[in-house]
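Running this now, will post back.
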Amino acid sequence: GTMLRLTTRVVRGAARVCEAAPRRALHLHECYSMELMHKHGVNVPRGSVARSGEAAEAIIEKFGGTGVVKAQVLAGGRGKGYFENGFQGGVHVASSASEGRDLADSMIGQHLITKQTGSAGRICNMVLVTEKSDIIKEVYFAILFDRKSQGPMVVGSAKGGMDIEAVAEEDPDAIVKEPIDIIKGLTEEQAQGLAEKLGFSPQSQDHAVQQMLKLYEFFVARDCSLVEINPLVQDSFGNVMCLDAKVNYDDNALYRQQEVAALRDFSQENPLDVQAIKNNLNYIGLDGTIGCLVNGAGLAMSTMDIIQLYGGKPANFLDIGGGATADQVTEAFHIITSDPKVRCILVNIFGGIMRCDTIAEGIIHAVHQLELKVPLVVRLQGTRRVEAKSLIASSGLDILTADELDQAARKAVQVSRIMDMAKEAHLAVRFKDDFHVKKPSPKLTPSFT
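Update: finished.
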């Protein structure tokens, strides 16, 4: 019912924050987050990073001949994933140093494919080798931001070490939720109640309480948007520790989190996303053929909707914001055209803070500098629109224009289809507006060579 849907939504927020808000979360490898957590007094197993099988073997020898080898890839579901070489699973227990070496050699340098990576997978450049713990209890513990309570929330379950989304759907009563007052923080009383509800033994509850308080301290101090521990465990000695760490950091706070920023692994990210971030552009790659360059997230979303309404598919979401320079516009075109699927680019600008003539200068500069071969459909309205249109008209470039978004979207979809047909026929195509046709809107005139 409603409660099940709410519970599932909260847990999915913990599991998929990175997918829902790609520009608001910086992800670090588990090994780096564990290192940062340890600095805040959070218990984590002894371990080291290995970038070769020999290094993994040496670490396991120090641990007495057994250990856990975990692929360091920024994706969930590593344990159930598989590598491009056919090796199954990104998390394994090694019963000997030589087995640890073989496990590491099977992972390092290979792409791991999980339910979150897509078919291409993500490269595994290193493994985390930790001591093997004698576990007697596993729980799920996460701290995230909850919109309904307008603050942090702890989400927990006594059923740890499992797919928490499946737990939420099959047994919603197994999910514990505790809203946190952002001013007071997580109190000792709240942590005590959570320790009891999650089923820690009486002799371990004090230890569990302290670990929860330290995890919340870490959450606040490091500007996290998510701290997800699955599992948080109790060992045979009554100790409570984190055997896993999925942490998202708010990238708007990186100016004061230099240590976090320095640990970022760009090899785990889409190169175009990285390029966009470096140029302060909001970019998300999609699967369509019509590139979009828009100012404002709302306008960008509506532009994508209208493209799909007329049978096209957007190739990206790209919001240049309200203060973009001509150089940023050029860089935006470079990012869009780096996607080989793009057949046409639709520029949709409603000038307010962002001046239309600045966009026009950027468009002209980009066409010349990048030797742009992809057709452009440009719709400019608002501040300095007349000047912008004059710049485009005097540039001598074959840029298709439109006054209304509806007209621009239709034209972009038509151009994209023509480009697809031309590509199949191995033809080069140029477009220009035919203003001599006596119709309300100019006619497209493709020229084939």
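Confidence is low (pLDDT under 50) at residues 1-23, 436-440. More later if anyone needs it.
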